[in-house]
Amino acid sequence: MTVNFLFVANDKYASNLGICTFSVMYNMCHAMEKVRCFILDCGITEENKARLRRQAAGFENAEIIFYNIEQKLKEVVPKVPVRWNPAIYGRLFLTELLPLYEGLERLIYLDCDVLMDRPVTELFTMPLEGKCIAGVADSECLQRKRALGIEPDKPYINSGVMVIDTARWVELDASARVIACINSFPEQLFYPDQDAINYVLHDEIMLLEPKYNMLWMICDRDVPIMLKYSEDYAYNAEQTYYALYHGSIYHYAGHDMWSIYGITPVHSRILDKYIGLSDWRDKKRRFGSVRNFILWLMVETKRLLIGEGRLTDRRMRENAD
């Protein structure tokens, strides 16, 4: 069986993309006949593309395919605040690939700031119940649904991991409708692409277990506290703890993954593993912002004073397979 993953990146996130695609191939190539990684290229340098191809060549049944959308993206970039990197809209060009390649009935879209740590073969065979996409509920469900006017009983997913039925996506003209939605009321969209996908496709979404998109922010605080203050979070404590310690996909949510390093123990361990294995092991860490440095400093101080790291190690052993 051939499985197909979709990514979007420009050169700013090439290192994230490198370690992300490595984690996918590392976990999927032994389980599948062929693994194809389609990259909608928003301006990746030839040097980094060569590095990505070289890394993929280390897996005999992996293929990495670039499709340049840089100029097309410039022509249709939605009218949104400039703080967002235009590459976030790249996934809306997934329909460009469909006439060119066979077997794209189902795509798994991954943000390039995620790491896979277990195979997800079941996502390619599970029924989607007639829905267009499947994803994991976001931790800010209630807040975003209220802002967008989405009915309380409808899902609101984090769009960093999506299982996509491409035929249904085309049938619904989803790409054009999402762009039109963003341009209609950009001031109401805090996460422009994610908000618009949820608004347009609110009847076309199936929820996945949280293990398929474990956000680093949930790991940054005790799960009971998070559940107490996230009124509309779709999962209970047992599901959340299981996802934290037995996750299939871990999400660094909008960050250069190296800037999160050391802030959350579980995600840092996963990152450490794939940095050491991938072709990006030589990259130097950076905090990305003063806020991230302060967070890291606070966490390190806490570990030194009360042994928080040892507590996490014990939890991980207790929850081991």
Keywords:
single chain, three-stranded mixed β-sheet, Spore Coat Polysaccharide Biosynthesis Protein SpsA, Chain A, 14 helices, globular, seven-stranded mixed β-sheet, 321 residues
Give structural notes.
This protein is α/β, with parallel strands linked by helices. The chain has one domain (2-318): Alpha-Beta Complex (Spore Coat Polysaccharide Biosynthesis Protein SpsA, Chain A), CATH 3.90.550.10. It has 14 helices and ten strands. The strands form two sheets. The protein has a seven-stranded mixed beta sheet with strand order 3-2-1-4-7-6-8, sandwiched between helices. Helix 1 links the parallel strand 1 (2-9) and strand 2. Helix 1 (14-28) packs parallel to helix 2 (46-56) and helix 6 (174-184) crosses helix 7 (192-200). The protein starts with a strand and ends with a helix.
Q: SSE order, as H and E? A: EHEHEHEEEHEHHHEEHHHEHHHH
- Reading off the top of the CATH hierarchy, the class is best stated as Alpha Beta
CATH superfamily membership: Spore Coat Polysaccharide Biosynthesis Protein SpsA, Chain A
The largest sheet, given as strand count, sense and whether it forms a barrel, is: 7 strands, mixed
Number of helices: 14
Order of strands, widest sheet: 3-2-1-4-7-6-8
- In the CATH hierarchy, the architecture is Alpha-Beta Complex
Question: What's this model, at a glance?
Answer:
The chain is α/β, with parallel strands linked by helices and 321 residues long. The protein has helices spanning 14-28, 46-56, 70-76, 141-148, 166-171, 174-184, 192-200, 216-219, 223-229, 237-245, 257-260, 265-277, 290-306, 308-318, and strands spanning 2-9, 34-41, 62-68, 106-110, 114-116, 133-137, 157-165, 205-207, 214-215, 249-251.
